[in-house]
Amino acid sequence: MTSPTIIPRSDHCISRDNIDENALKVLYRLHRAGYRALLVGGGVRDLLLNHVPKDFDIATDAHPEQVKKLFGNCRLIGRRFRLAHVFYGREIIEVATFRASQDQPDDDRVHDDSGRILRDNVYGDMGDDVWRRDFTINALYYDIADFSVVDYTNAMVDIKQHTLRLIGDPDTRYREDPVRMLRAIRFAAKLDFTIHPDTEQPIYELGALLRDIPPARLYDEILKLFHSGKAVQSFQLLQKYQLLQHLFPQAELALQSNSETFERFLIHSLHSTDKRINDGKPITPAFLYAAMLWKPVQDKTEQYRQAGEPASIAMQNAISDVMSAQVKISSIPRRFSSVVRDIWYLQHRFNYRHGRRARSLLGHTKFRAAYDFMCLRGKAGELDDDSCEWWTNIQSLSSEEQERLLQPARNAPRKRRKSKPKS
Questions:
Q1: Please, what CATH class does the domain formed by 1-169 belong to?
Q2: What's the confidence (pLDDT) of residue 385?
Q3: CA atoms of 95 and 75, how far apart (whole Å)
Q4: Which stretches of the chain drop beneath a pLDDT of 50?
Q5: Are 61 and 36 in contact (CB under 8 A)?
Q6: How far apart, in Å, are the Cα atoms of 11 and each of 33, 84, 160, 397?
Q7: So which residues are the catalytic ones?
């Protein structure tokens, strides 16, 4: 077993002042009970990079049942690997027991035919646990006993060099869990790290393994990729490593058809999402899916129109086809898929600027999302009129001014009613 490098408190920048108060409570109670208690993973990594950690996960030699005895506010979860969740209101501190290394007997470890781990409840010590983690930068431990950082994988060097490197054989690790390829993209984008050549090479060859991942899990990973404030970078890396085709194959096909306008639209949409996240504004998965699948819906609608379907029916059929194909890859909760449809259906109504249709559009519950979507289409060059400017201006008017502007034009030609044939 490799001996770790111990970085004393004087040689690293982690301070308890920057560690979550509830995480410290868990660490100290485990320590006082005689167990090893260490902050691990992204929390340690982010503290060393002077970032604000999103989560504070804890590793210990206490088994889940022993953790539960120490904390009345604890619940055990998980089948593949048992975890203890300690609750403080809405905050959850995750406590994981050290896992055994890969070279120990598989008494309770089950793989499928492709090598993916299905169950992994084999406990070990810290020296074993480190080799079960994915990337070196996520395998650093902060020991509450002496405030040192424990480094088994030379991770401190990778952090200084901004390098993302898998622990162990990359081919094997990706086959164990293909989602690690998406995690590599996410961390590289989020941290502005470079993926190590040995870690990136298998991604080009193993991307198809993502097809075996359940749609619900891929949905979660897609949100992590595109709702981290680095959506543009994630999108570009997914394209570089040829993984977008396994998450949004219809979008990838549209991009390959030399649709520069669609690519500009996606970049503008993702940039808008990043800005909203960084400004602390709310976002919805519906907007991401509406943007990613917009060109496929347009193309499919045109196919149905060419086949003789009326415009409204053509779009309904196209939306049904595109959404049905996507949910086989990544699930979309109904509360969001209905919003996606609304955003798409409302696009053609921005052509109406007078009368009942324009008035009802302005009062529609999904007007704002559809309006933002339409403006991004204009910014990308898909629209050649002043729709965005017009609908932007009308929102700044008073109710009375809006009503006057929405009145039907007086000189508009009126349709003549067909006269009934005389009997």
A1: alpha beta
A2: 76
A3: 10
A4: 104-109, 118, 423
A5: yes
A6: 28, 32, 13, 60
A7: 55, 57, 134
Q: Which residue has the tokens 């992590």?
A: 224
Mean pLDDT of the chain: 91
Q: Which pLDDT value is given to residue 115?
A: 53
214-404: which CATH topology? cca-adding enzyme, domain 2 (1.10.3090)
Three-state secondary structure along the chain? CCCCEEECHHHCCCCHHHCCHHHHHHHHHHHHCCCCEEEECHHHHHHHCCCCCCCCEEEECCCHHHHHHHCCCEEEECCCCCEEEEEECCEEEEEEECECCCCCCCCCEEECCCCCEEEECCECCHHHHHHHCCEHHHCEEEECCCCEEEECCCHHHHHHHCEECECCCHHHHHHHCCHHHHHHHHHHHHHCCEECHHHHHHHHHHHHHHHHCCHHHHHHHHHHHHCCCCHHHHHHHHHHCCCHHHHCHHHHHHHHCCCHHHHHHHHHHHHHHHHHHHCCCCCCHHHHHHHHCHHHHHHHHHHHHHCCCCHHHHHHHHHHHHHHHHHCCCCCCHHHHHHHHHHHHHHHHHHCCCHHHHHHHHCCCCHHHHHHHHHHHHHCCCCCCCHHHHHHHHHCCCHHHHHHHHCCCCCCCCCCCCCCCCC
Residue 26 pLDDT: 98
The pLDDT value given to residue 309: 95
Query: How does pLDDT run across 401-419, given as a tens digit for each residue?
Result: 888 888 876 555 555 555 5
| 248: its two tokens | 């949004």
Round to whole Å and give the CA distance between 114 and 176: 8
Fold match between 1-169 and 214-404?
A: no
What residue segments make up the domains of the chain, in order of their start? 1-169, 214-404
Kindly tell me the sign of the dihedral angle through the C-alpha atoms of 126, 127, 130, 132: negative
Write down the pLDDT at residue 105: 46
Structure tokens at 135: 């990337």
Neighbours of 106 (CB within 10 A): 13
Task: Note whether 72 and 97 are within 8 A (CB).
Answer: no
Estimate the crossing angle of helix 215-226 against helix 285-292, to 10 degrees. Answer: 100
143 DSSP β-pair partners: 38, 148
Residue with tokens 């991401």: 288
Question: What predicted TM-score, i.e. pTM, was given to this entire model?
Answer: 0.87
Digit-coded pLDDT (tens) for 178-188: 999 999 999 99
| Among candidate residues 56, 22, 26, 51, the one with its CA nearest the CA of residue 39 | 56
